[in-house]
Design goal:
Length: 198
């Protein structure tokens, strides 16, 4: 998203109407999208136990439970101090990494890719070394994850190599959300196609 903000001018936090235009959406001022795929509904009321929010058209996954919910309507979500309402758009491909405290840690460690089926989707993972200006000399990696929902196939391919990863390889686990299906691979920078069909 930082790469996208730099090259396309799109902010990290985006209003819902950017992707879901309409008079009802235009009036929502207490929710936002984080990128295109995550809907965030912060809780502002002290000691609130529930939160009303609006899900745009389409299928959405509760980030915490992976429950699938049809959008185009208002819903009520149970909340507490540790659970802010977050919903993931069907078709989203979301990268997850272990917590990193500072940039000198190995940022090219294991990677988890979460696929939220229901639509085709794509994500381009941008990575640089995290501490120098070498990205201005095109010293960075971009990896594209493309999900074909009808075929249940994920294709992974590099856009410019694996030059920053130790030994030019990385452990990746792919999880198909709302199912028990997952696959683990050692990715070495070659195009890979993974099928999640029955």
């Amino acid at each position: 998203m930082a790469w996208e903000a730099t090259h396309k001018g799109l902010p990290f936090m985006r209003p819902l109407w950017l992707y879901y235009p309409g008079s009802a959406i235009n009036e929502i001022d207490n929710q936002y999208l984080w990128g295109r795929d995550l809907l965030i509904a912060p809780v502002f009321q002290k000691a609130a136990s529930t939160q009303k929010l609006f899900l745009p058209q389409g299928q959405w996954y509760d980030f915490w439970s992976s429950e699938i919910i049809s959008g185009g309507r208002e819903i009520v979500k149970d909340v507490d101090l540790s659970t802010m309402p977050i919903y993931v758009r069907a078709g989203a491909v979301i990268p997850m990494v272990p917590e990193i405290q500072h940039t000198s840690e190995n940022q090219f460690g294991p990677l988890e890719i979460r696929i939220y089926p229901g639509q085709d989707g794509e994500f381009i993972l941008y990575e640089d070394d995290g501490h120098s200006y070498d990205y201005m000399k095109d010293e960075y990696m971009k990896t594209r994850f493309s999900w074909d929902d009808a075929a249940a196939i994920l294709t992974i391919f590099p856009e410019n190599g694996m030059n920053l990863c130790p030994d030019n390889q990385r452990e990746i686990t792919i999880r198909l959300m709302s199912t028990e299906k997952s696959k683990s691979i050692t990715y070495i920078g070659n195009p890979v196609t993974l099928s999640f069909q029955q």
